[in-house]
């Protein structure tokens, strides 16, 4: 028995040639195949570490709403049991991650449409191009975050769902797996994971595996983590441009990536953790700036600095002492930016600044010289097209 992403049955002709199974994960009892081999650059099969796999998108908030919608036809399990199982499956993921969930009563269409995660029990053709086929076939499917039907879990109402029994299909185990998909987890390559593409017989004391926990924490952090939505952060640590045209903003152990457009479109793969994606870069940075002459980005923390090309260090020789780069810098450097007009680099600390030309101090002054009202310090800065954008607490100036 297995969970499988691409059913062998044909895709219904919906008239939409772009419609594929890349936004939905389906649980099919009749399919039992999974390959653990991978092909390396030499075309040779190798066995890779079996671990969690992430979808390309995730939720951009940590607080989600959920509810369950019950079918017109009665299930072989009580409504009270279903409600308790949905709550328990949600708790499996919230207890080990930075996610929190608010339960709703989904008794009206407008409530359902505004709820993030909705578990429903459907029959046959139920309007999403993935019809059910009765008992012992396709049991359910779930839609990944960032897709048109994100957060929807559809279960086949014709199945024999049970709770604490070896008979029938254990609803808690199946729902926990499907909810993992709605949160951004694909099928794991770890045999023991809940997100593995296999239905396991009833398991007393069912719980997530270490692999499942690592996967969900990679996406949403540990319990109690609260930094996720960049719009709700007040006072960033650092910001910078990079050679590939992206803009990055940093806070604590997180970073956000934006397109270099005037409306600053946030990339859907962020926020991410600095530890995971910036090789050797520490958390809680002081500042950063991009130097277009070399294509390198400089990062500062305390008396040390690092030099990167995009998100990779240019050398293993870093970090180095900041005195190897600057003469009498203002420490700690709270913000930094390059001005393409006069080709200078400005560093700020509190309400003062030093402007460097070829990394030698040229001008010192007060940020009030820039006609900023009621600004006591600059947290971070970056270039947006032909402007320098200065960030201070929840405000920005350009």
Q: How would you portray this structure in words?
A:
It is a single chain. With 398 residues, the protein is mainly beta. It has 2 domains: 189 residues, Collagenase (Catalytic Domain) (3-Layer(aba) Sandwich), CATH 3.40.390; 168 residues, 4 Propeller (Hemopexin). Helix content is 12%, strand content 30%. The strands form 7 sheets. Strands 1-2-8-9-7-5-6 form a 7-stranded mixed beta sheet, with helices on one face. Strands 16, 17, 18, 19 and 20 form a 5-stranded antiparallel beta sheet that branches. Strands 12-13-14-15 form a 4-stranded antiparallel beta sheet. Strand 18 and strand 19 form a beta hairpin. Helix 1 crosses helix 3.
> Mean pLDDT, nearest integer?
79
Assign the CATH topology of the largest domain. Answer: Collagenase (Catalytic Domain)
Q: Please, what is the CATH homologous superfamily of the largest domain?
A: Collagenase (Catalytic Domain)
Relative helix content:
10-25%
Strands of the largest sheet, in order across it? 1-2-8-9-7-5-6
The count of strands amounts to: 27
* Beta-strand content: 25-35%
Gyration radius from CA atoms, angstroms:
26 Å
Low-confidence stretches: 1-21, 29-49
Shape: elongated
Instruction: Figure out the total of helices.
Output: 5
Protein name: DgyrCDS1738
InterPro entries: Hemopexin-like_dom_sf (IPR036375), Hemopexin-like_repeat (IPR018487), M10A_MMP (IPR033739), MetalloPept_cat_dom_sf (IPR024079), Pept_M10_metallopeptidase (IPR001818), Pept_M10A (IPR021190), Peptidase_Metallo (IPR006026)
GO molecular function: metalloendopeptidase activity; zinc ion binding
GO biological process, one term: proteolysis
